[in-house]
Amino acid sequence: FIDRLSGREDIYVTASRMAKDFGWKGSGADTFAGLNYLYRSSPDEKWQGYVHNDWLELQITLGIVGLILVVLLLSGAAVSW
Fold first, then answer.
1. How far apart are CA 40 and CA 48, in angstroms?
2. Which candidate, 53, 44, 43, places its Cα nearest to that of 18?
3. Whole-angstrom Cα distance, residue 9 to residue 62?
4. Do residues 74 and 41 touch, judged by C-beta distance below 8 A?
C-alpha cells in the first residue's frame, strides 16, 4: 500500500500545525482554505481546500471550545432521539 492516502498525510501534518497555533479560539468558520496557503511547507505543495477529516477541520475553524459545543449538541440530539 504505497498510495499514502492520496497525500492526506501531508494535509494532516499541515492541519495539525494549524490546530496547534489556533488552539482554543480557532481561526473562524470557513477559513481553512485561505490559511492552508500560508501553512504549506513548500511552494510546490498543493493548496488544499479541505482537511478531509471533519473533526480536525472543526478544531481548526471553531477551536477546542467550538468542537466541544458541537459534540455536546450532537450528543444531545442522539440522546433525545
1. 9
2. 53
3. 22
4. no
For 12-41, write each residue's pLDDT tens digit.
888 999 999 998 999 998 898 889 889 888
Closest-CA residue to 18 (of 10, 27, 9): 27
Q: What is the pLDDT of residue 30?
A: 87
Which residue type is seen at 38? L
Cell numbers 455536546 label which residue? 72
Cell numbers of 66, please?
A: 467550538
Quick one: cell of 15? Answer: 492541519
- According to DSSP, residue 76 is labeled H
pLDDT at 46: 82
